[in-house]
Write a structure and sequence with these properties.
Two copies of one chain form a homodimer. Chain A is of the alpha/beta class and 577 residues long. Chain A has two domains: 5-281, Nitrilase/N-carbamoyl-D-aminoacid amidohydrolase (4-Layer Sandwich); 297-500, HUPs (Rossmann fold). Helices cover 38% and strands 18% of the residues of chain A. The first copy, chain A, has 21 helices and 20 strands. In chain A, the strands form four sheets. A seven-stranded mixed β-sheet of chain A has the order 13-12-9-8-7-6-15. In chain A, helix 6 links the parallel strand 8 and strand 9 (198-203). The radius of gyration of chain A is 27 Å and the shape is elongated. Chain A starts with a strand and ends in a 28-residue tail after the last helix. In chain A, 57% of the residues are buried.
Chain lengths: 577, 577
């Protein structure tokens, strides 16, 4: 008769490079877990260093510092077993899980499956481990896995469970994208059912440059039922009591889950058997843990933007942010996110009207800022526009006004925001959405100038949905109706509208989803029923704007394919499609 | 008695994504090689698609188009055997060499060693091949390898030569860095001697975004002697006659090169035996081929910059470039490179004096431009500086002038250059060197605004050496002496000098080499004899400038560790060292 096991999952917001800070946070949570009577506590993948540390992993002294932190933490592992992710420097470097027990580093498991696709570059840094591993805690056998290990069917989890593990830990740093939490949970549930084992998934939380981690730590029993779930996008210590009795009984009946019936001998490292509780102290079986709700689609993306911005600001030591308010939907969304991330007193808005700015958009900007309680600066750019025109008059004598003058307006605004940033130390947050970023409808060094591009991975139609979602939270929406209903315009020349030169956003976003996220070619897009001329036009615009995207600030990834480390296209590229 | 083999190496400047253009160029060179009586002609790694195609390799239609081009080229392989690099879509995707003979695709070798370090991401795209492969051409056994395959000692080359290959082809796309040509040649010579086989190395040439390929195709005999070498940094068809007789005789004597003595059975695919020449047409043994000189250190880097700029401009469809001339050494070097890359009639210089610009630097700028025959525009920025100050006067009422006003000057200049770019379609080339880029001594959206950063990977001291190198080529140097002798200054405030706020460049560049290129930590740098305070200061500056570097335009990599795809550091990073 196996006793229940009380497991804690330390869903921490580890900061990349902050080894001392991460160590301290982990140490505190080890203590908290012990106070909660947990026998076993787990932390995310590379919790010691933050994820992804990128080329910091190529520094010997960085790896040595990480190891030293693990050794110090081991001393804290008294009366509890802790499993902590760290980069292990041995003959090669491994993405590893350290088992800390009885005051020492008792063993190490090395991640086997190294992701090297999408945003991941793990083969650049790590060697694959080759040995599945288990530990025994108060008589319960626990398998160890790190992140990608569990996204592949098969070993190491199958080996570990065949070797007797009734609980499998997964130390994870799984970047958020829309809908991924549900997908992740379904995958884990399937793994749990396939192996008739409980899975305890400990997720990293927080923003790191282009990535946001949603946490979403979860414990799923051997029948695929969620028995505990942490809230997304927040630090949390999730505690759950797992009763392995039913899983062991089910496996006894279902001989497919027993090695003898499979004719195999599982090859597994036994890293140690640890006694935490005396027999009389065994936790009682019973209600497992809290089960937080998963956020719905829009709320989840909105929370990711808030987390991404808040962590970029705080982790990089900024106090406040500044943004240009245009009266359009994009800067409205960014203002809302900024207020929710930082509080109104840390957000300054700048309204920078030109002769092409309509009274309506200016009034809406002021109303929005007032409703949100934001400080507003107004700087009229007409005089500067005239001065640039005058300086360039001789050189431009024989040519007509064109996009040059439009870009100058945007760049004057960019200069003003950057001057405020330089003078007061505010971070400039930019407001271009993914649809614009895709087709190059933003001005390099103009509206794209700044430190963090909050909605760069949010397509235009989703921008509207997010503003609606956020507006519903207040009894009275802070967003003037006209901002939502007015046809989008950059207001860089008289009577300009986005749909003068772009397909309607319904068409544009559908083409972009196919072209950018799904790597479809022209013929496949047309076969989806999309207008052939629009497809050709959009593909051409996307390809030629690659040089602009390369110079954009980072911003949080929320789709399955973000520009940046996720979609890596050459600038010099004649393929066209 | 083996007959000699006449081999041609098609050192082509393949353009990424230009499958049709690359196909045409390869087809022409197959014909030229046949006219030169070559029996075998090789082309670089991924010659069909250009290198690196990055995420184009994730598009099914791109891979299908590449395959179709290979099939069409096969029809041209009559009376000659051609080996061409292409991405092969099979159950997975392989970095492959197609053997084209007798009018058909006769076989495929798959690269085994996939680089995934430095600038390389091949594991993201490719599966490793597992089978060494040989072909037989007029009785000579030829082993096939692709790039990284030969940078590792051992298989596939050792297997192929043990299986009888007396010649080994290497299809390569090996990015330039200073000194690499010599290093590469020494490595190949060692491989040739280790296996007692001739190596024919066919290198890609040309610029692709951040990378420059120096070509450097070379044929090295079984004693490690260079018997033919193509000029670096130029398209070229290198033809050489290889006599395998001596190698075969040497291997008969040296039983270490025979499988029986090693107790192994080489596992090698035989992709076909091809007859090109009748017995009576066998080429005579004799002088092997031309041997171009390798460039010396500075000339090589200078040529890389010229190639990088020229190809970025031409491959992206620009006609002309524009740059700001300050009278300093950096913009001087960029102007020289631009003239050599494009010709003086395609380069416009802009002199944009502020009240802080000295008469000396302005006069030197004009003299340099005149000496180089460049068109000059002069735009004085004082009025605009005053207008920005006036607009911001209320907001800045309680704070002193600081770096904000310096940055505004740089950003006004950036705006003017970008206005010229927008109006006339000129590419803006920027002038910041690697030392400045490292410590963040450039203004984002100011002097760093533009499409190509020509010297972003050239440390300051090397900037001087390159200007000297280039100056010596003309009977009278086009560079006014004062540009070389004047202490460096950004001239953004009165009496400013770089060494007011930075260590001398001798110290700075030494710290940067250790910190950026060699990943050394503080203690190791100090142990090298570098001043501890300067080390601390520089490390801090480098780390905090990561966000700026992320928004820089691309520029050619010439050191062992360039910013960009080579050195991948997080922006959010508390490590500090």
């Amino acid at each position: 008769m196996a006793r229940p096991l009380r497991v804690a999952l330390g869903q921490v917001n580890a900061v990349v490079g902050d080894i001392a800070g991460n160590e301290e946070r982990i140490a505190d949570l080890i203590d908290s877990a012990r106070e909660e009577s947990a026998q076993l506590v787990a932390f995310p993948e590379l919790a010691i260093t933050g994820y992804p540390p990128e080329d910091l992993l190529l520094k010997e002294h960085f790896l040595a510092d990480a190891r030293a932190a693990v050794e110090r933490l081991a001393a804290r592992a008294q009366g509890i077993v802790a499993v902590v992710g760290f980069p292990e420097r041995a003959a090669d470097v491994y993405n590893a899980a350290a088992v800390l027990a009885q005051g020492r580093l008792a063993g190490i498991y090395r991640k086997q499956s190294l992701p090297n696709y999408g945003v991941f570059d793990e083969v650049r840094y790590f060697q694959s481990g080759t040995r599945p591993a288990v530990i025994e805690v108060d008589g319960v056998t626990v398998g160890l896995t790190v992140c990608e290990d569990i996204w592949q069917p098969g070993p190491p989890m199958t080996e570990e469970t065949l070797a007797g593990a009734s609980v499998v830990l997964n130390l994870s740093a799984s970047p958020f994208q829309a809908g991924k939490a549900l997908e992740r949970e379904q995958m884990i549930a399937q793994r749990a059912k396939d192996s008739v084992a409980c899975v305890a998934f400990c997720g990293l939380v927080g923003g790191q440059d282009e990535l946001v981690f949603d946490g979403h730590s979860v414990v799923i029993d051997h029948e695929g039922v969620v028995i505990a779930r942490a809230p997304q996008f927040a630090e949390h210590l999730l505690v759950a009591t797992i009763d392995p009795t039913a899983a062991r009984a089910a496996r006894l009946r279902d001989t497919r889950r027993r090695p003898a019936a499979r004719g195999i001998e599982p090859q597994v490292d036994h890293l140690g058997a640890f006694t935490v509780l005396g027999d009389e102290d065994a936790p009682a079986p019973g209600p497992a843990g809290e089960v937080a709700d998963l956020l719905d689609d829009e709320a989840e993306v909105y929370a990711a933007l808030v987390t991404g911005l808040r962590d970029y600001v705080h982790k990089n030591g900024f106090g406040k942010v500044v943004l240009g308010l245009s009266g359009g939907i994009d800067s409205t969304l960014v203002a809302l996110v900024a207020v929710d991330a930082l509080g109104a007193d840390r957000v300054t808005c700048v309204i920078m009207p030109s002769p092409h700015s309509s009274p309506g958009t200016q009034a809406d900007s002021r109303a929005l800022a007032a409703n949100l309680g934001l400080r507003v600066l107004e700087l009229r750019i007409e005089d500067l526009m005239g001065r640039y025109d005058a300086l360039l008059a001789d050189v431009f004598a024989d040519v007509d006004p064109d996009i040059t003058e439009e870009n100058l307006q945007a760049r004057i605004r960019g200069n003003l925001l950057m001057a405020l940033s330089n003078k007061f130390g505010w971070l400039v947050v930019t407001t271009a959405n993914k649809s614009e970023m895709s087709v190059g409808y933003s001005t390099l060094y103009g509206d794209s100038a700044g430190g963090f591009a909050v909605i760069k991975d949010v397509p235009k139609l989703l921008v509207y949905r997010l503003v609606e979602e956020r507006s519903r939270r207040d009894p009275v929406s802070p967003v003037p109706d006209e901002i939502v209903t007015r046809p989008p315009s950059a207001e860089l020349r008289a009577d300009q509208r986005d749909d003068d030169s772009l397909p309607p956003y319904e068409t544009l976003d559908a083409i972009l989803e196919g072209y950018v996220e799904d790597d479809l070619g022209r013929e496949q897009l047309v076969a989806r029923g999309l207008d052939a001329d629009a497809v050709d036009r959009v593909i051409g615009l996307v390809d030629v704007a690659e040089y602009k995207r390369r110079q954009q600030p980072p911003g949080p990834r929320v789709t399955s394919r973000a520009f940046g480390r996720d979609r890596r296209m050459p600038i010099t590229n004649r393929y066209g499609g």
